[in-house]
Amino acid sequence: MRALSSIYRLGMKELWSLWRDPVMLVLIVFTFTGVVYTSAKAMPESLHIASIAIVDEDRSPLSQRIVDAFYPPQFAPPVLIDSTQIDPGLDAGRYTFVLRIPANFQRDVVRGRGPELQLNTDATRMTQAFTGSNYIQQIALGEVNSFVARQQGQTSLPVDIELRARYNPTLNATWFGALVQVIDQITLLAILLTGAALIREREHGTIEHLLVMPVTPFEIMASKVWSMSLVVLIGSFLSIQLVVRGLLHVPITGSLPLFFAGAILAMFATTSIGIFMATVARNMPQFGMLAVLVLIPLQMLSGGITPRESMPQIVQNVMLAAPTTHFISLGQAILFRGAGLEVVWPQMIALVVIGAFFFVVALRRFRAVITQMA
Prior knowledge:
Layout (H helix, E strand, L loop, with lengths): L1 H18 L2 H20 L10 E5 L4 H8 L10 E2 L5 H6 L5 E5 L3 H6 L7 E4 L4 H26 L21 H32 L1 H6 L5 H31 L8 H25 L3 H17 L12 H6 L4 H15 L3 H33 L1
Parallel strand pairs: 1-2, 1-3
Antiparallel strand pairs: 3-4
Helix pairs in contact: 1-9, 2-7, 2-9, 7-9, 7-10, 7-11, 7-13, 9-10, 10-11, 10-13, 10-14, 13-14
């Protein structure tokens, strides 16, 4: 009971210290609001209101069908121009894409002569240029195939593919981006807040005060883990309710209590990593540089940005030791697909094992540092 009381009181001290730190408070609020919202709205894979111009030299029903096939939200309404305006429009940045439909295009299509469409792309807008070019090819070929089938009296193609998008029927990239950002920010803040709390103790000299008190290194470390985890949990819950559901209108089909249970297990590991990093760094700038080296690989190689299946096998195996790999898998299963405990229990067990390992390692390092200071 004495140990629990010490852990509780030390944790409350951490919360009061954080409350008096306006910079950290602004960082927490902005991370769970501005970062989540802007990142979800600016997903690089998505194509949103891309500017397109069309040079229609054919003026046929087929060319008009192609023109009408481009509409929001992927494309802005097409602008009809002539061929002399292609280069000036691209040079001025007015258009990202310019599609040129040659004269006699419909006639050549009907006669099977294999006419060509010319697509001019502003490749300085690299992501939109790559994604949009594929979109335009599919749209134009789809209209041509549909027109030819009707001209030849075909009511249906020999093979028909029925596409069904599960969990995200409108293929809205905002849904994916918002929830992935919440998961990433939980990991980010869990490491930064606990590490910064310990660095702040060392820089302000209050760690020496703790050394003369009847508390153990375990109690000091546990207090930082639960207090900073509580702050991150509250911030992530408000972010999901106010930003993800409220502003972005992202539906969540899974159980939030189950998700936050997994988040607690993940933070058990990530807060321990933050404390270990704080014992290695001597001041806040060093801790910040060390955090960059740790956080970027965790976020890029855990499956949140790039599917793990596309990574080299050795990277997949190494990242199994990272808590973020299992947390992202767990979070996506629950929030995206509505999975229950019977699906995500392996990830939870992995988080318990990894968290226990990192906690023990961080505690041993923390004891060694305190012993040197004493």
